[in-house]
Amino acid sequence: MSRLDAPSIERKWQQRWQDAGCFNADMASDKPKYYVLEMFPYPSGRIHMGHVRNYTLGDVVARVKRARGYNVLHPMGWDAFGLPAENAAIERGVHPAKWTYENIEGMREQLKSMGLSYDWSREFATCDPSYYRFEQKMFLDFMKNDLAYKKESWVNWDPVENTVLANEQVVDGCGWRSGAPVERRLLSQWFLKITAFSEDLLNAIEGLDRWPDRVRIMQHNWIGKSKGARITFQLTEVPSGADNGIEVFTTRPDTLYGASFIALAANHPLILGLAENNTALHDFVEECNRMGTSQATIEAAEKKGVDTGLTVDHPFDPAIKLPVYAANFVLMDYGTGAIFGSAGHDQRDLDFANKYNLPVIPVVLPEGEDPDTFKVTDTAYTGDGRLYNSDFLNGMTVEDGIPAAIAKLEELNSGTGETTWRLRDWGVSRQRFWGCPIPVIHCDTCGIEPVPEDQLPVTLPDDVDFDQPGNPIANHPTWKHTTCPKCGGKAERETDTFDTFFESSWYFLRFADPDPEIAFSKEAVKYWLPVDQYIGGVEHAVLHLLYSRFFTRALAACGYLDLDEPFDGMMTQGMVCHQTFKDQNGQWLFPTEVERQGEDQWVKTDTDQIVDAGRIEKMSKSKRNVVDPELIISGYGADTARLFMMSDSPPERDMEWTNSGVEGASRFIHKLWRMSSSENGIGLADLGTAMPETLDDAAKTLIGATHRTIASISEDIERFRFNRCVAALYSLSNSITDAKGDSKAQDWARRFALETLVQLMAPIAPHITEEIWENLGHDQMIAEMAWPEADPKWLIEETISIGVQVNGKLRGTIDIVPDCDKSIAEELALALPGVQKILDGQAPKKVIVVPNRIVNVVA
């Protein structure tokens, strides 16, 4: 056999798969369906290692399911609207569409070079009118069904750019690009009524049993159902034009006797009214408006306030007067824009009370504490206990005190019990060019009118000018000017575009049906949906998944489909990490700019200057700890990159990219290539398909090990334990090379074991295994073959081989009796030469024996 030429082999088999249409999905099949989908990428121009890991995970699942007899849908497309394209247009002087489609061309070729089993016939880009025409129609249907509406909302406003900024674009209170102090402004915005489905979205989480627990918890918390009380605090003196009382919603009415102040949002109507004649309040409101609207930013800021001079009556005891403050940590968009401060049991309230010398009254006594001596000074007590300093609530638990407090409020007509939600309606308006135009028209006579459906899609202008500040669509000389579809008079188009989450909230439905005339058919959705396995980063665990779940319900309410949940199974993969490096001037260095000298020292490759080797962190361009997948694929081959991605860690955990790990994966692929050569006696010779009638012990041992490997890998793939699959492949390859007998039975066993090894490895390293399979004399591609099946009679064993890892790296295997004592497994593992070399005479920190599976040594 010739030298392994990975690039040529990979191009060959990618073309073969394409020519044969191996991965094209069709509903006209009697096989059970399986829909596997990775979150589609933004076309930034180049794939990164996070893409490689994510898409390899999905590809392994897709290939195995196809081999196991499923009709697999595995599509790919592009989440193509967004701010980066608009920024690129400004920087490079090109239209965002040109930049985006050029990036798609490049990234498509990069993904194809990985050998991913996509049905490319279903590819689309969400920025194409052929896609977003359908979501414009959906929005009009949402309007008809009272699921879309317009209202005023507070936003982050950049006064230089004249545009709204996302919370993430506000840096230290300034616009990320202009550097100008950000202001809060009330703007009229479009919203989708996600809150109409709050209860259903919450209750259905229980049935998502193939989702990670942490994702379900995050969804649960974001929806945030709370039971509490809406309380009216009566003003002692009512300012002219103001309401008589201040409404507060709280989930902790049991702590009312600990209240020492009322805090209102800076843009609360009462504060805005007072600020007209109060310079201190006016200046404070202006200061708060420069903070932006991010809850995270506001929580992190120093707690500040201004005393309004007003007081309110305590709802349980009007003799108690509470001062009213304007505060920078209260948001008008959350709850009622007002809170009561119970400083003893909320850290935010305590910080504020301490700053302004307000009373701190603890009312929840921890178990075992003396009520006469227990105090709260710098740290609020947020645990459980019994109520005290609380009149009729004294002695009750927190759990019993809440309903008792609500009952008393209702008796006094001071409040009512109420259920509230953290979830807010989804604001979908963006004052940006590169997004889907919102299909409505504004007429002075008729008001808001939907664009007639026969005029869809409303497309973006080609002649766009980014030199002016503000929204380029609003500044366009002609685009927004139109006629009212109702009265025929002069009118203007809506110049906001959709939040880019809009496109990604239904794209999985579009993949089910590529018909250019409809968004999707009910029949296609009924056949393919829900997605059986969805794969993506945990950073999308809340908004994208929640919006997709909402969209499915909203479309069902509008008659588009009959579907409860879009994603049946969810896997969140960890991040790809790499060590960071800085030169002596503190500048970040790429990994290609440094090399190791000795055990602990790193130097620059061009100067031998010592560099500072820092922490292992998520790959990021800013810290330059990135590795270009294209260099790895061109240098080692896609199979090597794929194998390493699967071998290092469980997929839900972060993994470290190391040169040694890549080289180890490459060595194994070369080993497999050599094993399959005819010179090794197990390659090209035709040994027939039937097992010899007479088998010696060595042949039986190898055949049994092969069937057990089939069984273990089949189970581990179903459970996404891909790193264990790779360890089992390594172990089987060692068993093959260790079998050195020369009987016909052993020749057959080695050939059987090798062919099985190649088939089992094909989903992970598909190119090299196809080439070996063909060299072994097979006409049919592995991509078209059934998955190997383990024969139960060969699964009974006297001993088993398990892997031994040191610090997560496989260093050898040991043979043990099933269910043997852990001390025996530990003793055998520590005796391995590979383990002893790493330990270098030192005792391990820890040895973890997973019975019948693996031994983990922590050095």
DSSP helical segment count: 26
- General shape: globular
Our Rg estimate from Cα atoms comes to: 32 Å
Poorly predicted ranges: none
Largest sheet: 4 strands, parallel
What is the average per-residue confidence, as pLDDT, rounded to a whole number?
Answer: 91
Per DSSP E runs of 2 or more residues, the count of β-strands stands at 34
The portion of residues assigned to helices is 25-40%
Strand order of the largest sheet: 2-1-24-25
Protein model, in words:
With 859 residues, this protein is of the alpha+beta class. 34% of the residues lie in helices and 19% in strands. A hairpin with a 3-residue loop joins strand 33 and strand 34. Helix 21 runs antiparallel to helix 22 (722-738).
Short note summarizing the structure:
The protein is built from 26 helices and 34 strands.
Task: Supply database-style keywords.
26 helices; 34% helix; globular; 4-stranded parallel β-sheet; 859 residues; alpha+beta
What is the topology?
Blueprint: H1 6-20, E1 33-38, H2 49-67, E2 71-73, H3 83-92, H4 96-113, H5 129-144, E3 148-158, E4 163-165, E5 170-171, E6 174-175, E7 183-192, H6 198-203, H7 213-223, E8 225-234, E9 245-250, E10 261-264, H8 269-275, H9 279-289, H10 295-300, E11 305-313, E12 321-327, E13 338-341, H11 347-355, E14 364-365, E15 386-387, H12 398-411, E16 415-421, E17 426-427, E18 429-430, E19 440-443, E20 447-450, H13 472-475, E21 481-483, E22 490-493, E23 497-498, H14 501-504, H15 507-510, H16 522-528, E24 533-537, H17 543-557, E25 570-573, E26 576-582, E27 594-597, E28 601-604, E29 612-618, H18 629-635, H19 638-647, E30 655-656, H20 659-675, H21 697-718, H22 722-738, H23 744-761, H24 766-775, E31 800-806, E32 809-816, H25 822-830, H26 833-839, E33 846-850, E34 854-858
Parallel strand pairs: 1-2, 1-24, 10-12, 24-25, 26-30, 31-34
Antiparallel strand pairs: 3-4, 3-7, 5-6, 7-17, 8-9, 8-16, 10-13, 11-12, 14-15, 18-23, 19-20, 19-22, 21-22, 26-29, 27-28, 31-32, 33-34
Helix pairs in contact: 1-24, 2-19, 3-4, 8-9, 18-19, 19-20, 21-22, 21-23, 22-23, 23-24
